[in-house]
Amino acid sequence: MNGVFYGREGLRAGWRVLVFIVLYFLLDWATNALWNRFASLSTTPPIPSYVAIIRESSALLVVLCTTWLMARMEGRRFASFGYESDHRIGRIFFGIAWGFLSLSVLVGLMWMGGFLIFQGISLHGSIAWREAAVWALVFLMIGILEESVFRGYLQHTLSGSIGFWWAAFVVSGAFILWHTRNEGETVLGLLSTGAGSLAFSLSLWYTRSLWWAIGFHAGWDWGQSYFYGTPDSGKVTQGHLLSTRASGSPLWSGGTVGPEGSAFLLPLLLLLILGMWLWWGVLKKGIARRSPEIDA
Description:
Helix content: 55-70%
Structural class: mainly alpha
């Protein structure tokens, strides 16, 4: 019986993953039940920024507490689940820049094809700056939350059992299931979500941390929801800078999903993955061979 539950390193990976999932959902349920005693956080779209910041900070606290509890149970350091890096700030800002730039390329392609129509500026002055800052904080928390759930504890634990890339595919499947909760999602949008998850796993493979993916996640989502004012996986927010609307075939416009449901996204993700391989896999390794002290 011990062979079913325990291996050479203690409790087997599958059981540890199950414990993590159960703990996460129990803490999430308890947190939501506590909030509902004081105020309801359920609201119809578009989502106000004050609701989003309460929701996401609560959810982030849940996943960080769950990860910390698992680290204590296993006798590991909390930072070992993807948070270690000598270049955290640089990784985050580099990721934010690439996330926003990649989203802007996608939006530009949709606009040039007539599949996205700009309708003007919705916010001005201090309100625009305030909403920009609040939504930036929200999406940074979402980036930490989603990367911690999937490529933090789960990816780390499964990699030790079935290998990094098999774990990445399992985690990407779970990432797709996570996004099926969003109203208005399409099959193409979910496939793009899975491909994006694999790209984030590739960044973890090269950088050995979650920080670049967290930044990319934040920059991409902020660009969609606040800057360009498009739906983000079917979700629409209040307080966005620009007003836009989808036009034409949902295959190219993304329809109710937003840019993530557009067929333009898949080739863009492939180019992104190619760029990551060239930058981190070819160029950086070449530099490191010539200068071993440089972090690759």
